[in-house]
Amino acid sequence: MIITCPSCRKKSKVDESRLSSRFVPVPCPHCGITFYLSRYGVRTTRVELPELPKVEPQRQQEQEKYSVETMPWLKRSSIFDVGAYYKTAKEFLLRPEASFLRWKPEEKFNDSLIFLIVFGSLGKILNEYWIYLLTSLVGNVERGPIESVFTFSVSALLTPIGVVLGTFVYSAVTHFMLYIFKGAKKSWHATFATIAWVSGSVSLLSVFPLIGGLAASVWGFISMMVGLRVVHETSSVKSFFALTLPALIIFMVILVFIFAILGTTLLLGLSHILQIIQQQGRFPI
Description:
Elements: E1 2-4, E2 11-13, E3 24-27, E4 34-38, E5 41-43, H1 58-64, H2 82-94, H3 96-103, H4 109-138, H5 145-180, H6 188-202, H7 211-231, H8 236-280
Antiparallel strand pairs: 1-2, 3-4, 4-5
C-alpha cells in the first residue's frame, strides 16, 4: 500500500496486511510530522471507525448456526430422570452432528459415564429380557423357570460392569485406530465420551422387542461415526474404518481360534487312528 504524507507529500510503502481498521498515530519518515494511518488510508486527525467483523473459522461458523442451549441431561433432577434422558437421546439419534457441535459432549466425561452406566445397561437388560421372554414362551427344555429367572437376574446385575468394560476397551481400540489413521485430534477421553453418549442413547430403541437391538446397532454405528468425525475434526472415512476395524480384528481372532481348535482336534483324531492302524494292522471300522 502506498501512502502520501499530508505535509511533505512524499510517498512511502507500508504492508497493508499489518494495518487494522483503527487509525493509529504514525510519524512521517521524511518530515517527522505525525498523521493517522489505517487500512482505509491517511488522516490528519484521528477518526475511529468500527472494526470489521473477523472471518471466523469454518468450525466456529458451524457452531454458531445452532443454539447454545444446555444439554437436557446436564439439567437432570436425578440419574433416573427419564425426561432428560429422552430429550438428550432424541437429539443424539436424530441430529447427531448438530448435537456434537453445539453441546461439545466429549468434554463431559463424567456425565457420559453416568449416562452409559444407567441407560446403556438398561438397554442391554431389556434386550436380554426380550430373549428370556421369547425362550419362556416357546418353552425352554434345558432349564426350569426358577433357574431361568436366577440366570437372568445375575446377568442383569453384572450388565453394568460388562457395558463399562466393553466400552472402555472398544473406545481404546477405536482411538488407537484413529491415531494410526492420523484422525485423532483429541484425547481418548473424547473418544470414550462420544461412544458412551451414543451407546446410552440407542438404548431407547431397546423398548422394541428383538428388532430394537438390531436397529440400535445400525443406528448407533452411524451416530458414532458422525460424532467421531465432528469431535476429532476428521473425515467420515477415517471414522468408519476406526469403528469397523476393531470389530473385524476381533472377528478374525475368533475365527483363527476356532480353526485352531478344529485343527488340533483333527490332528489328535488322525494321530489316534494311526496308532490303532499300527497296533491292529488295519483301519478301524
